[in-house]
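Deliverable D5.2: sample structural annotation.
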Amino acid sequence: MLQPARTKYRKAHKGRIHGIARRGELLNFGSYGLKAVQAERIISKQIEAARVALTRHMKRTGKVWLRIFPNIPVSKKPTEVRMGKGKGAPEYWVCRVKPGRIIFEVDGVSEQVAREALYKASAKLPIKTKIISRF
């Protein structure tokens, strides 16, 4: 699972995701990409599942770029614990994704293979996405 090596603070506020992506909205590396249409928090396990589905369909040919990174800790209290006694321990890591953000980029495979692979990867993510191309 993806997670940062170290962070400034151990726990974070939940926060809200406002607006559209002002960075990471253009293809920089590959010819095809998966672009977010909704705003949502994506868990590191979901990112990894999508990446595995993508690379497996491409049969490890071509190249895949991951354009997001889960750097926000989400804490959770254990089940059947009473209210109070502070905030829970960090449970997993998420990435806040705004609409318009590129999640994956792919290059080195045919358009048909790239589109099918990105479609399979999008099924593993909790947000609506669209497949874009440089051409």
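Annotation notes: Residues 82 and 88 are 12 Å apart (CA to CA). The beta strands are 32-36, 40-43, 63-66, 72-76, 89-97, 102-107, 129-133.
The annotation will be released with the project's public dataset once the embargo ends.
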